Amino acid sequence: MSDISRAALNAVFTESSTRPRPVSATKPLMGGRATLTLLGGNAQLLTECWSFLNELEQLWSRFLPNSDITKLNWAQGLPVEVDPRTTILINEMKDGVIRTGGRFDPTRLPELIAIGYSASRVDPKMVTRLPDSAVSPGRIDLVQISNQTVTIPVGTTLDAGGIGKGLAADLVASFALEHGAWGAMAEIAGDVRVAGEAPDGVAWRLGVENPFARGSHSAVVRIPDGGVVTSSQRKKRFGEDLQRHHLIDPATGESAATSVATVTVLARTAAIAETLTKPGFTQSARTYLDWLPSQGAAGFVIEGDGTAHESENWSQYR
Questions:
Q1: Is residue 150 within 8 Å of 91, Cβ to Cβ?
Q2: DSSP-assigned beta bridge partners for residue 187
Q3: Beta carbons within 8 Å of 302's beta carbon, 6+ residues apart
Q4: What is the pLDDT, as a whole number, of residue 12?
Q5: I want to staple 244 with a disulfide (CB 3.0 to 4.6 A). Which of 74, 137, 191, 255 is the partner?
């Protein structure tokens, strides 16, 4: 639907004090749960959006032997032809590394496997395997993209991980709007993207999960368009003592030693927000939150004792 057509219909609904009813569904996806909500869409478009997301999981999962990510990780320096959406993912990875000064690093897959995160948490029979040449960190700066062909250096491996979930939310929201929805909200395992018209015609209202009380919120934000991502070191735990988690500190190659429980970031896209959460676990809350606005983002940090901190611009979204 064109912007002109959407604006004309919006005027009709506004004049008659009615708005299209949202359609929504929740399904398992990318190792967690995903919820899609469309305003002005229909059941058929919702089905098409789920098919779109399933395609992305097939392309980006490191647990699937025929995914683009697995093929790249086993390419041993040879070029691999990938889906155009995979080139978008890799470019987002590259941008995230630059944006965070390397605190976000998608080449740390060997270390993730070493701490115990080799098998899918949904299906333990699905296990990530890497060639003997795999090293950590890799050289994402040397990854070359030419049209749909990607060449990564021998030893470098990639993990879509969180940024894959964030980018999937971004892409499916755009897909929904391009195919007729007025507005869309995609939430994929804690990564949220909202775009287009909100149900109240003003802004989308989103809750920030309380890490200590399941089902409750530590904060509520309102945004007309953008991404909201929460990362936690409490959910994915490994080892007999469960002391290791999936958030790797690039300085040590080990699970980040941190007092922070969760980091929430608001940014222009969910993919950007996802990359910006990672530095929140490797530096002091104040240093991190003072830095976030320089990246066009806002943040909310909850410590292990329940203490909450927010960036100076967080209040703009209440």
A1: no
A2: 35, 192
A3: 211, 218, 260, 261, 262, 308, 309
A4: 37
A5: 255
Annotation: CATH topology of 203-318: T-fold (3.10.520)
* Cβ pair 82, 148 in contact under 8 A: yes
Q: How far apart are CA 270 and CA 145, in angstroms?
A: 23
In the chain, where the domains are located: 21-61+160-195, 76-158, 203-318
User: Looking at the predicted structure, is the pLDDT value of residue 313 above 90?
Assistant: yes
Q: What is the largest CA-CA distance in the chain?
A: 65
* Structure tokens given for 141: 């700066």
Fold (topology level) of 76-158: T-fold (1.10.3980)
Closest CA to 25 of 44, 11, 3: 44
Q: pLDDT class for 229, splitting at 50, 70, 90?
A: very high
Closest CA to 88 of 158, 164, 161: 164
The C-alpha atoms of residue 12 and residue 141 are separated, in whole angstroms, by: 51
91 near 145, Cβ under 8 Å? Answer: yes
Distance CA 188, CA 214 (A): 17
Q: In Å, how far are 126, 255, 277 from 117, measured between CA atoms? A: 11, 11, 20
Same topology between domain 76-158 and domain 203-318: no
